[in-house]
Write the structure tokens for this entry.
Amino acid sequence: MRKVFWRNRVLALGATAVAPEPSARTAARGCDDLPRSAEVVVIGGGVVGTAVAHRLAEKGIDVCLVEKGDIGSGTSSAAAVAALLQTKTSPPKVALALESLRLLDQMAEQFGPQFEYTRSGSLLVATSDEELRMVRSTATTLMSLGVDVELIGAAEARALMPALGPATIGASYSRRDATINPLSLVAAYAQAARRAGATLCTHTSVTGISTARGRILSVETTRGSVKTDTVVNAAGVWARELAEMAHVDLPIEPLKGELLVTEAIPPLVRGTIISAAYLISKTQLEHPDTGNGSQRSAGITVAQVARGNLIIGSTREPAGYDRSSTYGGILDLAEQLLRLAPSLAKLHIIRAYAGLRPITPDGLPIIGRSPGLAGLIVASGLGGDGLALSAVTAKLVTEIVAGADDDMLAVVSPERFVRSGVAP
Amino acid sequence: MTSHRIARSRRSDRLEISFNGTKVEGYDGETVATCLLAAGFRSFGKGGVMQAAGRVYCAIGTCLQCVVTVDGERGTRACQTAVRPGMNVETDS
Amino acid sequence: MSTTIYDVAVVGGGPAGIAAAAETAAGGARVVLIDATASLGGQYFRPPSVDVVHTSGRRRRKLEALGRWNDMLATHGVDIAGQTRVWGVFRASPAGPPASLGDDSQSGPFDIHCDTGQSYRASTLIVAPGVYDRPVPIPGWTLPGVMTPGGAQTLIDKYGLVPGRRVIVGGTGPLQLAVAASLIEAGADVVAMVDACRATDGLTQAPRALWRQWGRIGEITGYLATVLRHRVAVQFGSGIFEILGTEATGVRGAVVGRVDPGGFRIPGTERVVEADLVCHATGFLPSVELTRHLGCAHHFDERISAHVPTVDAQMRTNIANVLVAGDVTGAAGQPMATLQGRLAAISALETLALVSPTDADKHRNRLRPAAIREERFARMIWQRWHPRPGLMAGLQDHTVLCRCEDVTVEAVREACADGARDLYGVKLRTRLGMGTCQGLYCNASGAELIARLTDQRVSDIPMPSVRPPVVPVRFSSIVGERPERP
């Protein structure tokens, strides 16, 4: 009764304080009704899920996306702001990243100015001879794979990135790396997906996947059941849990990353600064059999968002599903930053946050039909490369659905774990 | 001048600070905020999204609207910073 | 690493924190008192930083009382860390790096990291961060010359500065009268005092609530006398609808008008009042950043329409060795805050085995009659001055909600139309709460607006997560940290 009292008062005073009905065609992330059936159900509304839903819908496929929270509320909202080529640690990854950024370039035109995406480059910085050797060898490899990278000296590095201090002795500059606002990417995908006819059902949790005789029958959710024979598992760090609902094993583990946000400052960093240590730790932790142990390892990337805040990330800590910001993580990141850029010592940190990367045993995504349940297409395990590889993942999933072939599919196939016996 | 010092206070130790190049009078025990207010500066910034607001709003160091650059250090709360002779205060860039 | 381990660290040097620190130390504990200001006293005592002559006997007596507390702190050897704000608290782990607080396996002492680059270690925490004036977003509230009433009071009391000549005091709250009186005594012209409450609100409780509250009765009478003597236009059932002026001119005046019991505007009652200073707030918001970072349970206090930390009668929270005291638990005023500080001290001493459970209960029982009196008083206060829902009605689209990031009412409305149902959802779509104050001055009003737009109860809108640093901290303070040494 009280609510009615308030609303009547508001309307009487003419204030337009009551929300208009969400428009399914124009809203980026509002919640649609759950359909009775769909050609494809995409589970997970992060950067991968929305990219997939968008691409499938554009191909005329009847897509329903289901997301347990708000669009982009998982790892995508806890990401850093870069889509980098220089940190791609293997030839397949480089190929995937190159293709993905090419696709993003095309989509940037489609998405319009609110999509914060620029090919602003990245600088991989060395502060020791050992790091310089690593930077050089990485650059050589990347160049051979078609990445526009060049080695530069300390002075030139500091000219490109004035924030850098005397510890920098050399660097490699990759011209075509991108900075992206992750939330604007997710919103852009979601909006475009809707416009192309996809149904986006947020605040809807999947409770089960019904199967019979090796085929999917439906997806059960907290808001009802959707009949379908094809499901795309884009559930990020929950992809394993989701796959288990269909009795499928998926070797995906969470890897926590902590980040820091500074106060807003005038433009200082264009593109991304990457410390060599970051690349070293990424390589080691993605291949745990090369033995780095389970300690937190840092190394940092530094980028600046449009508003002016610097984003400094990220640690790599196996911590289960814990997303807390720790003293050690904050201290590590702060120390790393001041080593690289001592002039920033007086800058304020205003927030710390953390996200969970869905990582795989070999550091490559898992994209493909699940062995034993063909209707369950995996699109997960992108680790810390979700932003960079979302577009190519969507393309590959669309090809899988259409039954088309692609050279890249072999290297990301779920089959590889069955063969090598890595899957539990 | 809208803001003014209460007459009924015994001020000792007059000092000078500078604000964006202008000399501003202050007294020992005052803050950057009160000196600026007394000198007629109610806005310490350029205003708007990309630039610091520069206001005294809460005066207890919580709202962070009054931040200025003090002796080269940005993001410093004017309302919590005691003035010292020769202090250089500038609008946050 | 050799670090002093204090028995108790008290965070907050207002009445509750001072009482907690003094009495814990008097009981034999080793105590550090961490306070954000240069001289203790919080929002209640506000000791002057300049040499202000006090004509008011009331003020003089207050400062004498503070002097006695300071003496007690000195006598019992309380270490005082002034001009210090806590940015993060983590459990010290016996072996290895400090873990996050969520880690239940850690039961070591607390490592308290401060923005001064200093850290302290203590086995018990008493958190008494107090409250701050609750902002009311209305058109023009970001103009130069708009302050919180507490802000004006602070400038007058501590620095002898009056921030305006023609003043409107508005909103609602138990301290408006005191602020108006202070402004008058300091030489300003209070042209209007506008309160959303009715003249008679809560007065049925007054006889019981004011029973034996001689100090308070004297205070209120004093303020009233000052205000009436100066013929201030006191308008109950009224509100400030809009503040007028430009960025260049600052405040020029305000549109004032009548409101109904819910705080909603009554159209046709508007009139313009000229002024150069507007002091505007509606009650208080508890400073819960630290208690939420610590993982304490909170609940929505309907009385003040805000989330407060949940404490038992002994000031304990659900987190082991974390006690909370003072206004933060429900804005019940200074006598209650001091009392709660004392109760927290008793609990801390009991945990440290510096007082037996029997003696502890004896001390607690002696405080009970006062606690009951103060609770009755608080009930009356908030009956009269509770935040009115109508304050969030009549917002214009271009009204700024988040000052740090210039997020308007319109942006929040669009976010809700797009599916946002809480502050986190709005954050995903706008930059609300992402600025330097991290939502302190927009979360509460944002939640109220979202509740209205999405037909929910304000109490059902969860507060966004709080992470360290709970105040901005420079990199140099973290990297160059100096742990407190014995």
About this structure: The first strand of chain B starts at residue 4 and ends at 5. The radius of gyration of chain B is 12 Å. Helices of chain B lie at 32-38. The mean pLDDT of chain B is 88.
